């Protein structure tokens, strides 16, 4: 499996994030509770369940792509700041992502992630809930380290405020998502509200916080553009994620085939197919999505229905429209000609949008 | 059930905390996710599961005693500050307590608390995990409101730092506690390490943060005394809690009889009894505490053994010793004669120690 060029380009940034998170854990961990922090380190892909370190090159296949913290650092650079000064905030962003995944895996009953058993599958639900809370507290530990990088107190508070808002919106999105499971198929607006919470809030915060820490001029309008970019990217990201969760190759995504359907997730393809469906087809979908334990055969029939209604193309089309929106927001933040550092950051952010749209895992 | 006088005296403080938490929730809640915040409001004893408001006078029997936020406010007053200025911090302290209980009830499998079904028992484990995360995020929302009460940015950051430390220590304590379940009976030192995390960290933070916000002179030594008081009180509180969890009257405590034993909790009476036990008795205890599902009959036999080894008296004696330590720490912060407001706060804090030691629920 070759690594996409943009992920190679991001390596110096994501590597620095890993080191910052390691410092956060080192600074926080009480000596009697090393085993608690090991659960997070396992989730991050750094160690095996027994604590054995994972070799550097194997880590990547166990870990996420670290796009959120990378965006935080790149937006700091795009705004004219030193990206290293945003490392504590980027670490905080990744820790939010980590704790929410540890909890989401419990809530969704997912037994594997990135080709390994999830935290609850290894240590049980109780330890996973506690480990998630612990990682959530580390978000603040990380954010407060912005002071060590020379940021003024009011900026550190602004970072904490934005991170907190993101977590609130994420838990609201997760609440809506769980409520939709087993319930009616929502309209596009309700679906988007849920995605804005679950996926966009953190991406938007990552970009906004990066910009905030890098922009000496404190331009509110441009900060808002950075946040709006994150939101558009989040919607595009989720649309692509929904395609992968419905039609993706399990050996590549690391998630079971049709897993979203079997969990009766009201993904974008489902919402769009329902809009296009006839009365009979709608009833077929409603029956499936309100059943407690849908059979794989019923899921296969729904998959066929989604295909025949053009939901796959419609979703990809929507993802592309959202990506265009993201490009347009980014365009407003394009640096002046000749500013090489900022232009490099700009180009990498553009590449991330392209990657999100075309990724197969 | 008559209310102890000190709880009546604290009413203006605890009532103001309830209002502050309500404001925090109002300021944070997205309109599409009211149902998520309702879970917290239910846990706090404000509403029924369907959202019906609980009448003012019935709330108390569903709610905790709010001793932690009250201590935060009283230490602010004792240090010479206006206690109302510490309300956001006190709300944050209570929210830490709330989210940790929502998660602890999941982890311990407890189905009732304060005579009502726990959050997970009403809405299921998944919603409870998510509701706990949401309440944990509200801790920061509350803490950041210290700015609204005129506190300088560096103080607000100091509050966030102390709250974060408390949550880290609490999750470490919970980790140690869960590891001890089903394992060997620990020595007194290991037991104390666990209690310092689970119980003392938040009480110590509550007192320290209150002092910090009230003390204009920023006296580090006296701040450390306030924190040390909280730790000693926490140890005393837990010792008393262990007595109630082992020998308490279920109709008063709202917890099942012998629940700590049935859950194989390594409480202080167990640790002290084990120290005093003969070889045979130790083996009996070891057999019981490493069994997966101990029978009520076996639990009754262990209860008898604990009694015969004098564990009940030894634990109460230890609780009293710890309370004396707390009194001694508090003595160092005694206000000058004639300062009525501070002396009133001092006296109420003393009464809280007495209440903690003698309470039956």
Uncertain stretches of 5 or more adjacent residues of chain A:
none
Distance between the termini of chain A: 11 Å
**What is the strand content of chain A?**
under 5%
Count of DSSP-assigned helices of chain A:
18
Over all CA atoms, what is the radius of gyration of chain A?
20 Å
Output the structural class of chain A. Answer: mainly alpha
Compute the average pLDDT of chain A: 93
Q: Biggest sheet of chain A, strands in spatial order?
A: 1-2
Largest interface pair: A-B, 48 and 48 residues
| Sequence of secondary-structure elements of chain A | HHHHHHEEHHHHHHHHHHHH
Residue share in helix of chain A: over 70%
The quaternary state of the protein chains shown equals homodimer
The count of DSSP E runs of length 2 or more, i.e. the number of strands of chain A, is 2
Question: What does this protein structure show overall?
Answer:
The structure is a homodimer of 361-residue chains. With 361 residues, chain A is mainly α. In chain A, 73% of the residues lie in helices and 1% in strands. The first copy, chain A, is built from 18 helices and 2 strands. In chain A, strands 1-2 form a two-stranded antiparallel sheet. In chain A, strand 1 and strand 2 form a beta hairpin. At the A-B interface, helix 6, helix 8, helix 9 and helix 10 of A face helix 6, helix 8, helix 9 and helix 10 of B.
Which features would summarize this protein structure in a list?
2 strands, mainly alpha, 73% helix, 18 helices, two-stranded antiparallel ribbon, homodimer, 361 residues, globular
């Amino acid at each position: 499996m070759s690594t996409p060029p943009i992920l190679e380009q991001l390596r110096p940034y994501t590597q620095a994030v890993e080191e910052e998170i390691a410092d956060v854990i080192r600074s926080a961990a009480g000596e009697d509770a090393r085993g608690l922090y090991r659960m997070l380190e396992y989730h991050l892909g750094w160690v095996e369940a027994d604590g054995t370190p994972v070799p550097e090159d194997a880590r990547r296949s166990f870990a996420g792509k670290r796009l959120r913290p990378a965006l935080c650092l790149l937006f700091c650079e795009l705004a004219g700041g030193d990206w290293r000064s945003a490392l504590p905030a980027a670490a905080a962003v990744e820790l939010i992502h980590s704790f929410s995944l540890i909890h989401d895996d419990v809530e969704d009953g997912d037994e594997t992630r990135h080709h390994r058993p999830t935290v609850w599958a290894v240590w049980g639900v109780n330890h996973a809930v506690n480990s998630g809370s612990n990682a959530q507290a580390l978000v603040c530990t990380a954010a407060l380290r912005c002071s060590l990088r020379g940021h003024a107190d009011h900026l550190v508070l602004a970072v904490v405020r934005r991170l907190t808002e993101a977590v609130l919106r994420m838990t609201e999105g997760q609440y809506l998502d769980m409520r939709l499971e087993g319930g009616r198929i929502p309209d596009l607006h309700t679906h988007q509200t849920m995605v804005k919470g679950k996926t966009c809030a953190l991406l938007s915060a990552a970009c906004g916080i990066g910009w905030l820490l890098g922009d000496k001029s404190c331009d509110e309008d441009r900060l808002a553009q950075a946040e709006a970019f994150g939101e558009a990217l989040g919607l595009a990201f989720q649309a692509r994620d929904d395609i992968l969760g419905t039609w993706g190759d399990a050996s590549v995504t690391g998630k079971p085939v049709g897993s979203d359907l079997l969990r009766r997730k009201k993904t974008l393809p489902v919402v769009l197919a329902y809009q296009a469906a006839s009365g009979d087809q709608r009833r077929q979908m409603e029956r499936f999505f309100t059943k407690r334990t849908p059979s794989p055969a019923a899921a296969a029939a729904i998959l066929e229905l989604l295909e025949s209604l053009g939901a796959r193309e419609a979703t990809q089309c929507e993802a592309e429209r959202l990506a265009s929106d993201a490009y347009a927001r980014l365009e407003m933040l394009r640096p002046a000609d000749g500013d090489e550092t900022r232009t490099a950051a700009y180009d990498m952010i553009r590449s991330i949008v392209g990657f999100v749209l075309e990724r197969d895992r």
